[in-house]
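User: My advisor, Dr. K., asked me to get a structural model of this assembly before our group meeting. I'm new to this, so sorry if the format is off. These are the inputs:
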Amino acid sequence: GAVVSQHPSWVICKSGTSVKIECRSLDFQATTMFWYRQFPKQSLMLMATSNEGSKATYEQGVEKDKFLINHASLTLSTLTVTSAHPEDSSFYICSARDQTGVDNEKLFFGSGTQLSVL
Amino acid sequence: QKEVEQNSGPLSVPEGAIASLNCTYSDRGSQSFFWYRQYSGKSPELIMSIYSNGDKEDGRFTAQLNKASQYVSLLIRDSQPSDSATYLCAAPFSGGYNKLIFGAGTRLAVHP
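Assistant: The format is fine. Below is the predicted structure of the whole assembly, which you can bring to the meeting.
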């Protein structure tokens, strides 16, 4: 299957600082990537759809000014959590599809980023 | 509201038994369904996808889809302790492949 790389795996930061998470498609190009958030013992909640060369589409209730998404190339999307607070502590996961491959309907996930805000 | 519902469990089965995981969905327009496995602290891993009514087998895993009843299930034969994880059912919004809705997941515990 397609490979999606996410970095960093974990980050600890002070309240009020900003954190950038990178998501790369390693062996395919992705015009669209998806950012999910998962709190402990809960399911994945879609935060936003990242679109290459255009603005991201945010799900209801997700603050676009707080969670900045940039998808500047066909292989890289970034999520920046601005002015992070303890309630932003969560597991953030990116995902993408290889729409040119035989598995073009399948969603592949990065390894996730555990964010802890002190 | 389009939803995917799962029993959160835990589902406890002995090693070697068949584990049966169930999922129901509300959007009749959904055409494709996915089962993911997630170990604690890790990201989800795709196990099975199914698009047509009936059964689809892949090794010890069998996915079953019944569109009339709007349910999809996953059977794990010869369950192993390494199968202990949370299993997530997912379906696309509005029947397309774009965004996936995930169920809350069922925690499976396989005991020796």
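One thing worth pointing out at the meeting: The CA atoms of residues 18 and 77 of chain B lie 5 Å apart.

User: Perfect, thanks a lot.
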